[in-house]
Amino acid sequence: MAQGGYAIELRGISKAFGPVQANRDISVAVPKGTIHGIIGENGAGKSTLMSILYGFYRADSGEILINGTPTAIPDSQSAIRAGIGMVFQHFKLVQNFTVLENVILGAEEGAMLAGSLSKARKVLGDLSREYELDVDPDAVIEDLSVGHQQRVEILKALYRQADILILDEPTGVLTPAEADHLFRILRGLRDQGKTVILITHKLREIMETTDNVSVMRRGTMVGTVKTAETSPEELAELMVGRKVLLEVEKAPATVGRTVLSVENLSVTDEHGVIRLKGVSFEIKAGEILGIAGVAGNGQSELLEALGGIARATGRVTLNGAELPLSGAGADGRSRRAAGVAHVPEDRQHLGLIMDFAAWENVAFGYHDAPEYQKNALFMDNDALRADTARKMERFDVRPPIPTLPAKSFSGGNQQKIVVAREIERNPDLLLIGQPTRGVDIGAIEFIHKQIVALRDAGKAILLVSVELDEIRSLSDRIAVMFDGKIMGFRDPETTDERELGLLMAGMTGKGEAA
Amino acid sequence: MERLPKWADLVLVPLVSLLLAAIIAALVIIAIGQDPWEAITVMVQGSLMDGYGWGYTLYYATSFMFTGLAVTLAFHASLFNIGGEGQAQLGGLGVALACLFLPWPHWTLALLGATLAAALFGAAWAAVPAYLQAKRGSHIVITTIMFNYIASALLIFLLVDVLRPDGQMDPATANFPEATALPTLNQLPLFNLFFTSKVPANITLLIALAAAVGVWALLWRTRLGYSIRAFGKSEDAAKYAGINPFRITMIAMLLSGALAGMMAINNVMGEAGRLLQNSASGAGFIGIAVALMGRNHPLGVVLASILFGFLFQGGAELGMWTKIPIEMRVVVQGLVILFTGALDVMVRMMLTRIFAAFRGGKAAKGAV
Asked: What are B84-125's pLDDT values in tens digits?
């Protein structure tokens, strides 16, 4: 294909974990000097495959060829020696080390650091000039933005002379502008002859960045295509195995009276840092207000204050009645009684008890509900299990076994359990954070439909998501948050990604910092 | 990751752990020049072969059931209550005050009153550490340990200077009135068919068993138990669900303290008939081992209590009938705790490998 053969060739790779066949007879060839996308749903086996390539797991069978030579990769040191570098989704950086110290960590030459540090400083200088990878070598990691931390990870790999760079879901934590910068870097690397493997579930990134794309489904490789010759619809169909609606179908909103009114809401965390700085907005019945923004700009605190978890100041009314923001009545239980349902951003940490069975999780937060009680003393576990079976059927939770612990379900099915629990209560206000984070594309479509159906039933919905596409396709109105404040409201029909991206970075439309 | 079948996890793992503990104990006995076979014979003879032995084994087991349930209940709220010893001593104080200073017409009423007093005093002793944990974040392990020492000092003061009758030499209360004496198992109908001679095990055993059923029903059948378990798994998630952390911490610790305190009706009221110094005699700590071994399930706690009752009684017999010093029972108990509690994971890993190899072997044969 391109200039001189394949950087990586996998032949017949299989890997099983107990009864689960994570990879089944996978063959793929990545031409040198290209950006190769690997796409697939959660649990399709992408991460397993890359872990085999990076020496974390050993394949049960199959062969790996690096630059045409069969190569055994029993551990990550061998992977590094073979010229493979990996940038993980969760960075592996020492937070209180400088950039330079992190880059040489594990690649020090000799007992004294001074030599390797000055060598690294020079190499880093060259690399940043060559690839737009500018990072201050003396900055401490914890002071850097997420985008910069990611660049340090890339620099680490390049410092170890990686010719093949694997990136696992690299844009989950980046603003659109940072993501664009990352893709510029990746293209630069490719143009210098490096090979890049990009693992992602975002079809748009694949379409914009890659030369070729391989699609995985349930542990098998369903196909490798040239990006220029395919479409997002075709890729989605390959991933899921059936036709998928990528756009959310929804009629124009018919809004009613004001359901939620928020005035000057502020949250200060336990360290005394003000996380939410006096936000005000309204949501009407039959309306979805989408909150866009990079993670960590006050969205979580907004959800927690409204959900009764975090203490707050300001004034919040629901259907005209004031909701307490601190003291008595400012708790999840009172909020549920008032008609607020809450799908939290972090379902595994807040929304579910992972060791509890599905049926116990269906009661979570509603364990005081009268229909779950047998009498004054005991809960009616049988009724609860029956109710769970009904909800599982209605929301297509797989496997539909109420006694299975939450941790045994896939991310998408866990989320369906939470969404079923909250939506089936028919709340006046639904708070929903990152509804489709880590959720399969098929389940995304389903969850989006449920949210729209609730809106069409005349309920108010506050949607928080870091996925701009999701915000744009679901919301009737968009508010952009930056640094604990709302930078502005936009109409999803008339705004564009560039404008939202600027607001997310703290610039107003006229390009000045706020 | 391979998994053990459930029966192996619940039955085989503790059995293998016990076997390992027994082997090491045998080696220790050989090392001090004694005969391990003789030791085990004496232990089993003296504790399990007749009504008399069982009467002691079950007497100890009753105390351990209460303290084990106390640790279990708090554990499900993710609170490690090490204060069972102090709470049991305070329970003893409650029992003594109720028996000495209230006129009881019949032992049934006395039992009811003393049980309430024991539970109240035990709960009160757990209340301060619970409050400090819930409000100030002072670690419950540290505060409950400190409260054990305070309880011990308080009891010595009360027994020496306040409750000791004039002219009595030892630091103890006066004997309780006759009407407060609890029937021992040899005095109860049906039980007296098996327990033919006087034994210390008494009607409290039935209360302990009822308490085990009660703890089970509370944890797995009530809203409160649901909230306790949810809080124990994740405090943040519990907050999301509207479960009040302060309330759950307080309730779980008060109930735990009450259970530990109730142990006193077995030893103070049922056996001694007066309050002695150091009345709990370590049962509060054994409760931790019992809960560990019983996997924090009431049924497991009951079974583990009987095992530890056997070790206590059998150990005492060792001291009586062999040249093996009575301290040997501490060694054996220590080994049992080490293997069933601390090295439990090691045994499980070992068995998991064996099972996996066995299965692999079968699968390979099937393939051929």
From this structure: 999 999 999 999 999 999 999 999 999 999 999 999 999 999
Q: Do B237 and A373 touch (CB under 8 A)?
A: no
Mutation target to probe the A interface, by most A beta carbons within 10 A, among B216, B239, B240, B246 is B240
The pLDDT, as a whole number, for residue A4 is: 67
Is the predicted pLDDT of residue A90 greater than 60, yes or no? yes
Query: Is residue A249 domain-resident?
Result: no
Q: Measured between beta carbons, which residues in chain B are less than 8 angstroms from residue A270?
A: none
CA–CA distance, B37 with A44 (Å, rounded to integer): 58
Domain shared by A210 and A299, yes or no: no
**Do A178 and A45 share a structural domain?**
yes
Q: Where is pLDDT greater, at A349 or A441?
A: A349
Find out whether A103 and A155 touch, Cβ atoms under 8 Å. yes
Give me the mean pLDDT over the A309-321 stretch.
95
A318 and A229 both lie in a single domain: no
Count other Cβ atoms within 10 Å, centred on residue B27: 10
Q: Is B239 on the interface with A (CB under 8 A)?
A: yes
Asked if residue A306 has pLDDT above 90, the reply is yes
Nearest residue on chain B to A351, alpha-carbon basis? B237
The single residue listed with the structure tokens 């050989």 is: B30
Radius of gyration of chain A (CA): 25
What's the mean per-residue pLDDT of chain B?
A: 91
| Same domain membership, residue A454 and residue A344 | yes
pLDDT of res. A411: 80
B177-230 pLDDT tens trace: 999 999 999 999 999 999 999 999 999 999 999 999 999 999 999 999 999 999
Contacts of B233 in chain A (CB under 8 A): 353-356
Residue A353 to residue B221, Cβ atoms within 8 A: no
Residue A32 maps to a domain: yes
Write out residues 175-234 of B within 8 Å (CB-CB) of A: 217, 221-223, 226-227, 229-230, 233-234
pLDDT, residue A443, reads: 83
Which of B223, B234, B237 minimises the CB distance to A368?
B223
pLDDT over 90 percentage in chain A: 54
Distance CA B96, CA A366 (A): 44
C-alpha distances (whole Å) from A492 to each of A296, A451, A471, A480, A497 are 22, 17, 8, 11, 10
Contact map slice: A 332-371 vs B, CB within 8 A: 332-336, 342, 344, 349-356, 360, 363-365, 367-368
Q: Say which CATH number the domain at A276 has.
A: 3.40.50.300
- Of B221, B240, B242, nearest to A344 by CB-CB distance is B240
Is B242 an 8 Å CB contact of chain A? Answer: yes
Give the domains, in start order, of chain B with CATH numbers: 1-34+323-362 (no CATH), 48-305 (1.10.3470)
Average pLDDT, chain A: 89
Same domain, A464 and A340: yes
For the record, the structure tokens of A186 come out as: 């990746």
Q: What is the pLDDT of residues A453-467, one digit of tens each?
A: 999 999 999 999 988
The answer to whether the CB atoms of A332 and B227 lie below 8 A apart is no
Q: Answer yes or no: do A263 and A206 share one domain.
A: no
Query: Does A18 contact B2 at a Cβ distance shorter than 8 Å?
Result: yes
| Set of chain A residues whose Cβ sits within 8 Å of the Cβ of B234 | 349-350, 353
Q: What is the pLDDT of residue B360?
A: 63
pLDDT of A402-422, one tens digit each?
A: 999 998 887 888 999 999 999
Provide the domain limits for residue A158: 6-240
CB distance B316 to B91 below 8 Å: no
Assess whether pLDDT exceeds 80 at residue B3. no
Whether residue A479 is contained in a domain is answered as: yes
Pull the structure tokens for residue B338: 């080490």
Give yes or no for residue A20 having a pLDDT over 70: yes
Say if residue A158 is in the same domain as residue A184.
yes
Q: Which residue in A366, A368, A417 has the most chain B C-beta atoms within 10 A of its own C-beta, making it the best mutation to test that interface? A: A368
For residue A399, cis peptide bond before it (omega within 30 degrees of 0) = yes
Cα separation, A169 vs B123, whole angstroms? 52
Contacts of B3 in chain A (CB under 8 A): 18
C-alpha closest to that of A199 among A41, A58, A22, A12: A41
What is the domain count for chain A? Answer: 2
State residue A226 phi and psi, 5-degree precision: -75, 130
